[in-house]
Write a structure and sequence with these properties.
about 0% helix; mainly beta; about 45% strand; about 190 residues; 4-stranded antiparallel beta sheet; single chain
């Protein structure tokens, strides 16, 4: 998966729509020769920077679009979950909007999905979701780094997760870790 977040919409010729963004899915053969299998346009034609961040985990593609506007909030951002079929065809199954709604949040600045856990970074912190088999997502926590008495102004530039630890890298070069073991039962599969 390759994000082209500055790419224009195929249906627009004006500059205001020049940063709508798109994502390209490629298949690599055994010789590492790539073949384009899908070209995904921003599902929000008025949004921007679709493909700013990406994560492909098994057959779930997570796409961050930091410039998409939600509920009238400029640059609040959005994150999209796609199910990628065996032939490479993506199906949009879920749109996740930021829970907090601060402007500009830039939700989707960074994304990371590891099996059932999805971490979405934003300007102020990150949100943690549990993703189920049907790709529905439940918000587990919203962490605003300013609430933790940090001096961070541009927070979650990179996010990652392994088992019960979430790691957040910041613009200033700091790394914060969070124990999420009380939020998700990693020993039992999701119910739906």
């Amino acid at each position: 998966a390759v994000g082209a977040y500055n790419s224009p919409s195929s249906s627009s010729q004006n500059y205001s729509a020049s940063r709508v963004g798109r994502v390209y899915l490629y298949r690599l053969d055994s010789s590492f020769v790539e073949t384009l299998v899908s070209d995904i346009e921003n599902p929000d034609p008025k949004g921007s920077f679709f493909g700013f961040s990406l994560d492909l985990n098994n057959r779930t593609l997570t796409v961050g679009a930091i410039g998409n506007n939600n509920n009238g909030l400029n640059l609040s951002g959005a994150t999209y979950l796609y199910h990628v079929q065996e032939n490479g065809t993506p199906n949009l199954v879920r749109t996740i909007s930021p829970a907090e709604g601060m402007e500009p949040e830039l939700f989707g600045w960074s994304v990371f999905q590891n099996q059932r856990i999805l971490v979405v970074g934003s300007t102020y912190g990150f949100e943690l979701y549990e993703v189920f088999r049907d790709r529905s997502a439940t918000l587990l926590s919203h962490v605003n780094l300013a609430d933790l008495e940090t001096d961070e102004t541009d927070a979650s530039w990179s996010v990652s997760q392994s088992k019960n630890i979430v790691a957040v890298g910041t613009y200033q070069g700091d790394v914060y870790t969070f124990d999420i073991s009380g939020m998700v039962d990693f020993n039992h599969p999701p119910t739906n």
